[in-house]
Fold:
Amino acid sequence: MDLNFTADELAFRDEVRRFIEQNFDSEMRAAMARTRTGYIAKHLHIRWQKALNEKGWLAPNWPVEYGGPGWTPTQRYIYEQEMNSAGAPIVVPFGPRMLAPVIMKFGTEAQKKKYLPDILASNTWWCQGYSEPGAGSDLASLQMKAEDKGDHFLCNGSKIWTSEAQHADMIFCLVRTAQTKKPQEGISFLLIDMKSPGVTVSPIVTIDEASEGMQEVNQVFFDDVKVPKENLVGELNQGWTCAKYLLEFERGNAYSGHLKRHLAHLRKMAKAEQAHGASLAQDPDFAAKLAQAEMDIMAMEMLELRVLGGTKSGQNLGAASSMLKTRGTELQQLVTELSAEAVGYYASPFTPLIEGSNEPTIGPDYADGAAPRYLNMRKVTIYAGSNEIQRNIMSKLILGL
Ligand SMILES: Cc1cc2nc3c(=O)[nH]c(=O)nc-3n(C[C@H](O)[C@H](O)[C@H](O)COP(=O)(O)OP(=O)(O)OC[C@H]3O[C@@H](n4cnc5c(N)ncnc54)[C@H](O)[C@@H]3O)c2cc1C
Structure:
């Protein structure tokens, strides 16, 4: 693997850096410094995403015919690294990263025309309706019902842990359209307008939340919600195929850029903190943990280069996505664990993360939000399919067990 960039690639890297300098404004920077979840205010996400789209960079993984930039794997890698190491806002994944590939592969021409341009332009905000109170890892046992009523489906049931549903215009849902012996065979993939009569969003308050209205997850209720037939993606009762396809895109992330940035911050903290009369960074036990974390993150980067470098735009990663997800999320947790450990008691105050708060920071600035972030990161080994489930997938599809 040649890790030296060509002159063109270095010029591209500079272009990405210029873009970040010009568009990652002070309001976004302040919001990113405080976020515990990775999400910031919707209007800031939209401003950022519209700037990316104007440049043609919103959807690096889309094929060119749908508006992707046509980058090489190296350009995609450079772009991700630069964005992540600058701490730039994420592109909210539900539309561009998750739903769009499903529409490209399984949608009708009318659906492609209707939904893809609005996803690129960030005009429509999506959320994901897969999990239910009785269906998480065992997703195929989902019960939300969509009854065929001629020109529409009548939907009843609920979805849970729906991230950012409070901001969404639309939700893509897995619904039960038939009671079959094999539960996977009676599922369909449906697009539902969140403004439809009968849809209610109810926030779920989690332990990392400092104030009302900042929830990450919700329960969404559907009571006699009418959904036009044209909102079905793929064949009736074939939604499981779409569902699995989407999950491979959901899991196929690059983690190392963010991890390297967090590790650099952690090193700064460790230098500033004191332990036994010297800096924490010099403490043999903590220094060994930092060194191990650094090696693991470098190994993660090599894994990403190997896996993502061999993938064309628009191509899904298959079982390799489970490998990236498992290792990447373990390291995300490790870094926040070490951050909380480094600042000790000062990890505890939540005050600075309360929106609009002008309370002074308790303890050093770098300790801001260490506990809420540590707590929030418990989610990463659960969502997008828990890591135990990813191990099951790898044992079957990679190891052939
Ligand atoms: C912050 C957050 C955001 C989320 N956002 C969304 C969203 O936007 N949309 C959405 O649809 N869902 C979302 N989810 C839900 C997520 O996908 C589920 O929580 C996840 O699939 C696990 O399901 P569960 O919570 O029902 O746990 P369960 O399935 O009940 O699992 C409980 C435990 O048992 C283990 N387990 C279960 N089955 C097996 C098995 N076969 N082998 C080994 N171990 C097993 C699991 O690994 C886990 O540790 C989100 C979750 C979180 C935490």
Remarks:
- Residues 127-131, 136-137, 161-163, 216-217, 379, 382-383, 385-386, 388-389, 392 surround flavin-adenine dinucleotide (CB under 6 Å).
- The chain has three domains: 7-91, 126-240, 252-397.
